[in-house]
Every structure is written in C-alpha cells, then in structure tokens.
Amino acid sequence: MTNDRILLANQRESRISKFRAWVIVLVPLAAILFQVYVPLFFEFLGYLELPLLVTVYFALMRRSPMTGLFVGAFVGLAQDSLSKNPLGMFGIVKTLVGYFAASVGLRFDVEHSLVRLILALFFYFFHQFFYWVLAHALLGQQIDFDWQRTLMLGLLNAVVGVSLFHFLDKLKEGA
Amino acid sequence: MESLINRYRNVTVLVLVILAQLVLVAVQVKNDQDVRMIRVWAVTAVIPLARTLEGIRSGTFGFLNGYILLRSAYEESRQMKADLGRLKMENLFLKSELATADRAKALSVFQARTPSRTLAARVIATGTGAGSKVVFIDRGSLAGVERGMGVVTPDGIVGKVIAAYPTATEVLLITDAGFAAGIISQKNHVRGTLKGQGFANCKVDYVPNEEKLEAGELLYTSGDDRIFPKGFPAGVVRVVRPGSQFKDIFVEPTGLRHGLEEVLVLLEGVHQALPNYQAENAPVYLASPPPGNPAHPAAGAPPTPPVGTEADHLMQHYKDVGAAQGHKFGEGLPGTKPPDFNLKLPEASGAPAPAPGAQAPQPAAAVPPRSKPSVPAQAGAPPAEKKKPAPQAADPL
Q1: Long-range CB contacts (< 8 A, 24+ apart) of A15-18?
Q2: Measured between beta carbons, which residues in chain A are less than 8 angstroms from residue B126?
Q3: Maximum Cα–Cα distance across chain B
C-alpha cells in the first residue's frame, strides 16, 4: 500500500488498529481533562476540540462503526456532564461523528496525513454544524452559525489533529 | 430475518443510541430537570483530576515562588492582594451607603446592616465545548453553595451557580449566551437586561431608544433578577447605538477584567444603594481676564441687551424716567404733579439716566440678583461723569 494511494479498493485491505484498554479509556479522559483545565491558563486553547479529535481518531483507526459510535457516545456524554447543556447534546453529535468516521475509515487510507487533515476538518465542521442544528431545534437557542469562524477553527483543529494522530499512532498495539 | 438484523446491525444500534439520547434530552428539557447522577459521576471523575493537577501546578509554582524566589515578598504581595480585594468590597459598600444619605445616617444604616455573606472559592476548571463560558470552582454544596447563587469578584459580578455538586460548583459566566441579569445605570437609573453573547463583551437589551444612556457609564445590578443583590458593579457601557425599538448597547464586564482565579459566592446577598454619579472633572480652558478691573466689561464691548418681557422693559423705562426727574413712585399725594413720561432719556440703551446729582448706579457685577431690587437713585447725589457711562446693568428688579 503506497502513500499516494488514498482510496482502498477492497475493505479487506484495510488494517484494523488495536489499542490497549487503558489507552481507549485514558486518552479520551485526558482529552476532556485538557479541555476543562488548560484553557484556564491559555484561553486560546479552549478552541481546541480534543475530545472530538480523539473520537475521530479511534473511530477511523478501529474501523468499526460500533466502536466509533460507542466511543463517541461516551466522550459526548462526558462532555455534556461538564457543560451547561442537557445531557445528550454532545452525545448525539459525537455518536454520529464516531459512526460516520468509522464508516469512512473502512473506505479510505486513513494513515495518509492529507486524508487525516481533510477528515479532521470535515468532522469538526460537521460536529459544529450539527450541534448548532440540535441546539436550535431541541433547545430553541437563537445563536447564529458563523461559517467563517467555524472554518478557521476547523483548520486549526485539523492541523493539531494531524499531529495528535501521529502521536496516538505510537500508542497502537505493536507500534 | 436474522440475516437482515445482522446486515443492519450497525445502523440499528446507531438509531437506538441516538433515540435514547434524544429521549434523554427531551425529558430534561420538558421537565427542566437534570439527570444528576450522570453529571455527578463525570464531575466526580474529572474534577479531582483537575484539582490534583491544579494542586501540583500551584504547589510547584508556589514552591518556586515562595521558597526559592523572594518568599517574604510573595507572601506580602499575596496578603496585600487579599487585603485589597477585601477593602475594595468594603469600600464599595461604604461608598454606596454614604452616598445615600448624610454621613451620620449612612453610618447608622451601615451599622444596622451587614454586608453580603460570601464564600471564597478557587476556579479549578472550565466547562467543555469550544469557547465554553462555564467554570468549575472548588467549593460545593457541602460548603453551603446552592444553585442560583451569584458569583462575584471585588470588581464586579462574574456569573451564577447553575449546578452545585458536593465538592465542586458549576458557574455560568456573565459572558455566556445563556446568561442574563437585571441592571441599572448609575447616572440616569435606566433599567435593562444584561445578556452574555458568547465572547468578551455583553449586551444590554430592552432599553428603549428614548432612554438616556451614555458610553462610559457604569452599570450596576438592579436586584430584579433575585440572583445578585442591588448595587454590585456589572460593567461599563462601551457602545450605545439607537436600534429599531431598543438601543444596541455593548458592555464590558468589570468582574472579568483581571482574569478569574478566585471568586466569591454570594451565600446571602445584601442590597446596596447605587453610588451617586459624579461628573468627570474634565479640565476646562478659561482665558485670562481683561486688563484693568475684571469686574468691568472691556471697553468698546457692545452693551448687553436688557432681559425680560415687554412689561418689564416698560416698567424699567418708567422707573428711569422717574429717576431722571427725581420722582419717587408711590410717595406723592393725590393731585401732585406726575413725572413727564414723554421725557426723552439721554441714553437709548435703556440704562437709567442719572438724575442731576444722582449717584451713579453700581456696575453689573455688583448688582444684586433679580429678587433683591436695587435702591433707586436718589436726588441730591453728585452727577455721574458722562465720560464714563455706567455699565449696562442687568435688570435691577
């Protein structure tokens, strides 16, 4: 499998990455901890959606929609618990992100940095937009959706995501 | 059938998980109640880690600052910071009390009242979500914190408690889009609703265009929201624009000016009066007085036109005519000769012509106010010099 070959011809070609149990538990927890603690001192880091990036990573690498949706639901509900929102808002969005990311992982070579960058950007945008739709529809919140700002933050998160994914690759079993 | 389920297993599980969470959201929204158990689990799992991290961080920095670098200076600075915060709060309270009435009354009011009971807490974490405007503090329901309490710093209001857990409390910041508080302006006592916008500045809603509110004006809590007692600083008006029905007002919150590290939870709020508005003492340019007697107008300056109604002018004319002929109104008996009201006065400016031997009238600066009529010129007084005409007096009546 070459680096420039992005689309997989056969799903069997895809390699399912395996992680130790503590990695799957502690990495999302660390991502959430990062989000609640680090912005206290570096406010601009509050725009990093590490829990989302971690969800996308595990879903892409495990290539299992079931794993993706459960990781997404777990991370999302944990995020909801630490926010002012009703439980389930982040949960629903991240469940969908996990599921779709895993489905995409079945068809693309997600080891490729460019693919990772594009997917991280896409799923950040999807996450923010779908959350806005839910907040609008379920909670009646009248908040404007700022496309440009979301796109800029998506790019920032995608760049950070590519580096984060490379770091998390080292935690794979047999890496 | 089994193969069908197996085939769509992933989608089925997805739909079930989404539905379950939708029901969860719907129940919370409909009943306006939280699923507290899950939140307590998450807070219990994450907050101790954050507290440990904060302990390690502050311990490390505290050690470096306290023991290796200028320990005594650091301690002193910390003590002074704490004193400053306390004194600011006391000062605010005293100021507002003293402004309400005279000193003795304010002191008696102060003695009779006690300031708000507060609980100091430290910010240990922020909420989740990009750009979150929620923080966690390290005091919870075990310390007496309850949902709905206000959170302040000596500089102003910070937010309100939206959930109190045993060992931690979730605080919605003033800048969050879901935050709202009643405010009142210091100068004109204009009332409105302060709302967060999701970024640094807040806005004020429901202030009609007719109301007078200016940029730079201070806003205080009005106490209407039953969260913050009246009289706490809320923010400074930065922008005021007329809107379609209500003004567009943007406010910089004062409570978040110096960052958020330590806050006070208002366990029992005490309403305070607003401090009196004091106009800024902006320097005003004053030109130097003209040479000579500053009380006299400059030579060649046009006479000031008389003020008052037509009747005032007519009465003044008659008085001038009487004075010119040495006649005192109200003193003559019936049948005595009245003054000649057709007499042409020598000056058309309206200034009373001095009678022969009459005393020259006082200059304008010496003329008493309108309520105190001046004494009319008396006969027998030496004549006034024609070279130095009497300055136009303001209405002597």
Answers
A1: A16/A61, A16/A62, A16/A63, A16/A64, A17/A61, A17/A62, A17/A63, A17/A172, A17/A173, A18/A172, A18/A173, A18/A174
A2: 35-37, 39-40, 46
A3: 135
Instruction: Flag if A73 and B17 touch (Cβ within 8 Å).
Output: yes
Residues of B in contact with A83 (CB under 8 A): 127-129, 132, 134
Place of tokens 């969908």: A96
DSSP state of B250: E
Q: Helix crossing, A50-62 with A147-169: angle to 10°?
A: 50
B contacts of A48 (beta carbons < 8 Å): 130
One digit per residue, pLDDT tens: chain B, 397 residues? 667 667 788 888 999 999 998 888 888 877 766 666 777 777 777 777 777 877 787 777 777 766 666 677 777 888 888 888 888 878 877 776 665 555 445 434 433 454 678 888 888 888 877 667 889 998 898 889 999 999 988 888 999 999 888 888 999 999 988 899 999 998 888 999 999 988 888 999 999 988 888 888 999 999 888 889 888 889 999 999 998 889 999 999 998 887 788 888 888 888 877 777 665 555 667 777 777 655 555 545 555 555 667 888 888 888 888 888 888 777 777 777 778 888 777 754 444 444 444 444 444 333 334 434 443 434 334 444 444 444 443 333 3
**Buried b or exposed e, range B364-389, using 16+ CB within 10 angstroms:** eeebeeeeeeeebbeeeeeebeeeee
Backbone angles phi, psi at B265, to 5 degrees: -95, 130
Distance CA B221, CA B183 (A): 4
